[in-house]
Amino acid sequence: MINTLIGDIGHASVIVAFVAAIVSSYAYFMASRAKVEATGDNSWRNLARGAFYVHGAAVMMIIFALFNIIYEHRYEYYYAWSHSSNHLPVHYMISCFWEGQEGSFLLWIFWHVLLGLALIRGGRKDKVWEAPVMAMFSFVQLFLTSMILGVVIGDLKIGSSPFILMRDFMTDAPVFALDPNFVPNDGTGLNPLLQNYWMVIHPPTLFLGFAATLVPFAFAMAGLWKGKFTEWVKPALPWSHFAAVVLGIGIIMGAYWAYETLNFGGYWNWDPVENAVYIPWLVLVGAIHTMIAYRRGKSGLKASYILVIASFLLILYATFLTRSGILGNASVHSFTDLGLSGQLFAYLAVFAVLAVALLAYRWKSIPTTQKELATYSGEFWVFIGAIVLCLAAFQVLFTTSIPVYNSFMGFIGFESNAALPADQIAHYTKFQLWGGVAVAVISGIGQLLWWRKGNQGSFLDAITLPGMLTLLFASLIIVLSKLGVLNETIDNPVYITLLVAALFSVFANLSIILNLLHKKVSLSGGAVSHIGIALMLIGILFSSGYSNIISQNVSGMVYSREFSDDINRDNVLLWRNSPVEMDKYSVSYHGQFQEIAGVPGYVNRELLFPTADEYKAIARGPIKAKDKTYFETGDTLEVVSPENIYYQVQYKERDGDKSFTLYPRAQVNPNMGLLASPDIKHFADKDLYTHVSSIPDPNEEKEWGELQEYEVTAGDTIILNDYVAVFNGIEPIQQVPGVALEPGDVAVQADMKIFGERKNYHAHPVLMIKDQMLGRVPEEVADLGLRITFLNIDTENNKFKLGVNASQKDYIILKAMEKPFVNVLWIGTIVMSIGFVMAIIRRNDEGKKKPKAAAPKEKRKVQAA
Amino acid sequence: MKKTHIIGILVIAAAIVIIMSSVGDASTYVSFGEAIERSQDGDMTKVHVVGRLKKDPQGHIVGMNYDPLVDPNYFTFTLVDTNRVEQQVVYYNPKPQDFERSEQVVITGNMQQNVFVADKILLKCPSKYVEKEVQQNTASL
């Protein structure tokens, strides 16, 4: 039966949220007028608060309704049907909540509500900012809730509702004409690539970062609007740090997810969708720097305005790029067009016009210092750093926007056929690498000058030690690499430059931390973050610059094709159980495995007898893992995700006896083709990254050769497909997997032993008489490409007839590469985040100090932490 | 001249360099005819070509060859561009799994002698992200 109630509740809540956002933004606008503020009349503000609370409650209601639809498998709703399925575990139901565009808008709206409530709470004491800042918040919410409104007025469609019913979405489907109350049995499920724990936490983190950029923007706009041109920086600064660290972590999580789950072979591919969030992050970090410089030296206010506003507008631009469908030809993972491009463009345009107009109108009133910045001052280098960040952002922005130029040219009637660079990684690296060098050098110099407040002399003193250490370590690393201690020889001058710059940044910032240890270590957040960034640069340099494909095809096959030089032969074919030499390893493929509920690791598919329900299998033998038996023969097992097959690949060192096993995953998805996920072996100094690039199509029936019949007696030896096999005889059995034997039924199995290359196999084809019918359960030895059928028993002569089919052996095509020092990148990320958190705590305390000298209880806790 | 002015000029100069260089790196969508012309002029820059797979009247794909047992790193097929020009394309990588089902194929690469060597293949499959039909097996229940 169709449950329309929950959808109606959800839809009604969207409308309530939308209307409440209008009321709240209007009331907050009225409350912020100078006249109202002067009279001390709180009625507008109270109305606005009330409306925002209603908005918040309605948003919670929408989320509840949508989650209920997913959780209860209400497939009469399109959203549940297209994103969820019956077998999805709860944590993936959470991720399918935001797999769709509407859900991700909802996530964004949700974070704005929480941030807004936090600001209202903070505004209790300090009432200056609440009204204008929250007016901006509610105004943004108005646009965002309109995206999921799902209201159609004539030809005008406003928003796309997540609560649309299947029958309303697919009006053409004949089944709804027959039965309007038809409910599909199962959903189409969550995109398997997203079935990963990072996908459960990456989108909420990213959207919290998105949402948090609104806070400094709202403060900046409030400052311009209310004429408080300088005061906004102090409350906005900790929020900018917060937005930058959350957005940064969100981006890195996405990168790590791509690294771990996608077979792109890396963590960053300069995909337009990745770029779209990288650009605002760079600008936001630039904004933080100019704001810090302003806090100390009273210069850079205008730059802070520009960058804070730009970072928010770039977030909106990113939203427009990824959701309007404009990247359709350029990116594999942008959202499809929901027909919201006009609305998205309106959202971007309104805030761009509003912010730019307000800034231009107030430009002359923004105080500036006439003081020229000295070259030997920290502030000067902080500015240079911000400029470098912005130029880096501009470069990515310019190239990523190429599809937008095409659309725009098409819009005004010109034909344009510009495409993104053919080799995107080379293109972006060319610029961003030098951006990295500049950032590293400037962050080192800038920090030294910042804490020296110095003149030329003391700066030279300060830079000497880090400089010497840098040269020492850089030459040590280069010499070691030449001597072959490291796997790779570092001789590319560009890479050496980046290495030296990054090492300098590490040592310079380390010297700052050591100095601050004596004074006040809580001030060293900046230095810690900069070390993190420098480590990230080193990690990127080695893992990308010196990534090494070890699965070179050395089969010795003659390449008589069109070209012979410099073409990649990066994939090798691995026959089952036939080792191939790769780098210093001997690599072999040993069969297909699956995940079974309750059993750690993976279970060989040869032990699983499939049933009609693909989520259930019957154990052919005892299921063991690490000497513990989890299931006995005949037990029914629960297959965790039947579409995912894990290919066991064993690496064995040729010199030495170390070996390890990897399980790269692959699945052939009916909608998306082969989805391969790598498996990664982590070493201290590198990762070994392995993924399957191709497998025989599992949807094609296996081609079996002609049936060969053998007549044998117990103890006979026969040759099957070049393997020696011994027939030991037959034995009666009580159980046949997957068949219920009743009294009167008889089942016997043949006992055969086949001598394979690596091990011996036991085959037990079954012959049974059930309900007076002859039944056969053939045994497949996939390792050897054999299928043995027990055909008949000749009781008079005591002979047995066996049928054997042979087929091509199983294979996989594999790609493997080494990523040296990739751990340094992840460590750098963590260090950077710690630095940011230190800075947030410091800036937050600083912001509180002024209004109240006595520290409230909460603050003490933070200090203790 | 003030220091800020010098910096401002430098920033503008850097931005111009970025724009010029990015424009130089940008690729274009072309037809096979133009790709051939480019290679005859000695221009080896990589281009994008949009096309469809060549099919016989029965709808079977023709001119496609991938035999991983012989060479897992060699895949060749025939692509028909929007001007209906046929061209053999070689891809030195395993065949993308869903290749046959694609509606449209975007390749990047260039002409080398008489074949187009692709280094990237982007497939546009039907209903890749939005399912538009209730599947038969669910609908019949």
UniProtKB/TrEMBL annotation, chain A:
Residues 102-324 form the Cytochrome c assembly protein domain. One of its GO terms (molecular function) is heme transmembrane transporter activity. The keyword Transport does not apply. One of its GO terms (cellular component) is membrane. InterPro entries: Cyt_c_assembly, Cyt_c_biogenesis. Keywords: Cytochrome c-type biogenesis, Membrane, Transmembrane, Transmembrane helix. It holds the Pfam family Cytochrom_C_asm. The chain crosses the membrane at residues 12-31, 52-71, 105-121, 133-153, 206-225, 237-258, 278-294, 306-324, 344-361, 373-398, 431-451, 463-483, 495-516, 528-546, 821-841. It comes from the Bacteria. The keyword Transport does not apply. GO terms for biological process: cytochrome complex assembly. Belongs to the CcmF/CycK/Ccl1/NrfE/CcsA family. PANTHER family: CYTOCHROME C ASSEMBLY PROTEIN-RELATED (PTHR43653), CYTOCHROME C-TYPE BIOGENESIS PROTEIN CCMF (PTHR43653:SF1). This is Cytochrome C biogenesis protein.
From TrEMBL, chain B:
One of its GO terms (molecular function) is heme binding. InterPro entries: CcmE, CcmE-like_sf, NA-bd_OB-fold. The keyword Metal-binding applies. The keyword Heme applies. Keywords: Cytochrome c-type biogenesis, Heme, Iron, Membrane, Metal-binding. It is found in: Membrane. GO terms for biological process: cytochrome complex assembly; protein-heme linkage. Pfam families: CcmE. Its main location: membrane. GO terms for cellular component: plasma membrane. This is Cytochrome C biogenesis protein. It comes from Pontibacter actiniarum.
